[in-house]
Amino acid sequence: MAQRSIQGIQDVRIRTLTMHSVIAPENFQFINNHQKWTSSLIWTVLVVTLSTSFVMGVNNGGPNQYNSFIVPWARGYPFPCQKADDAARWVATVWWDCNYTAISLFNKTGYYYLPAIPADKQVLQSIIDAAHSICFVIGGTIGGLTGQYWYLLFTRRNAICVGMVLAVIGSLLMIIPLEIYNGYTKGDPSRIQILDALENKDIAVALLYLARFFSGWSAGMCCVVSTIYLMDISPRTMRGKVVSFHQLFVVIGLLVGQIVGLPWLLGQHNTWNWGMSWIGLFPLAGCFLVWSLPESPRWLVQEHQRNEAAASLRTLRQTTSIQAELDEIERQEATVAIQDVSIYEVFTSNRYRWPLLTSIALNAIQQLSGINSVFFYSNKTFSSIGFAGDKIYWGVLSTGIINLIMTAASLRFVETFGRRPLILYPLIIITITMILLCISIQIHIPILSLVLTLIFIAVSAVGLGPIPYIYPNEVFTINMRPAALSISMFASWLCNTRK
């Protein structure tokens, strides 16, 4: 065994295996210690995913329910009946006694309806209306690109805490806008009421954008620091499954965000800020609980802290028989540079060029497929294709439910079928589905459009959902992983800006 170990260390010819495998030296002897879930590993995964991934999902899914309230509010029309979207008008009619058939378009103040946008200004106004989502995406792009640098400043575990702090800041800032700029007068407000309401409008809107930026920054960091940590603490045979829990809790958060955004809960013109800020309680709790979690044993080995790495493995595996796994980690680390490499070095390395290109491509395809557009704008989309009233909300809710069901199923699929089939075959189905969806929307068949949308979501969830997070963690060695994943997540969030 010693001879084989020496041979494995000496043979440093690195090769990239298939999408089912990881980068490893020739003749490397992997140890299968048949590790399973332990209470410590479950607790660690839950704390990390609930404090980061779940939060990211809520911040992604919630605004879709609130856009019809945020848009008029940000334009300067904060009162209950000042709505243009069909869903928002239904809410205003049921809960705020607004009557859009009996009130003249030219009412006393001209503030009952939103004024029409001139044709030559509609594109610019659409960009302004989407500014809060753009701020979220910009923050995510920065968070994804800079994720690896927090690893250089802190440990693997402690870098996660930085993302939690950013999420808490975003949530706290989100509380303020409706507290300093609002309009709660039913019916047609007087001009004095309008002037009073608009006094702090610019400050409130700026705080909204800032809150979304910090939430996006946290989400971008989460895609890097959380997934690498989950990979590091996982038994080798369970890494794909454990990292998939990041995507699972993202979609759980997305569904919860949709539920909380229903008008029966916080989906009202005077409560949407609370619907987007309550989630800060989870990263706030995580800031305290994270210190109870074990540090990444791989990072400790990399830092020459063998005893601490052994203690971390014993905690995670809940056994003293960790010597074989510790030796395996040390042998793997012996084949790579001790220090994390930079983003520039990843780009210029011939050895890692193909894994890097495929990682970028997977994340770009995930975003360019349009999956996030569904969750960002399904409320408006379902309204435009013929759904009305509460049917819009049930349609939106169905997208979150099918996404959760299929993402949960992907936890088994990702290890059963492997990575390559879960990318190639779903992409074929997605292409066919999108063609049919375009036709269905054009000929205006609402139910068929909804069914095709749900098929698109289901197929995306089993492949394009988890694989782009798993693949970079598997094809790069530990020293390359932070930089490579940062580049991949930067590509993902950058492509997200197209929405």
UniProtKB/TrEMBL annotation:
One of its GO terms (cellular component) is membrane. Gene3D superfamilies: MFS general substrate transporter like domains (1.20.1250.20). GO terms for molecular function: hexose transmembrane transporter activity. It is a multi-pass membrane protein. It is found in: Membrane. The keyword Membrane applies. Pfam families: Sugar_tr. The chain crosses the membrane at residues 40-58, 130-152, 159-183, 203-230, 242-266, 272-293, 356-377, 392-411, 423-445, 451-471. This is Major facilitator superfamily (MFS) profile domain-containing protein. It comes from Adineta ricciae (Rotifer).
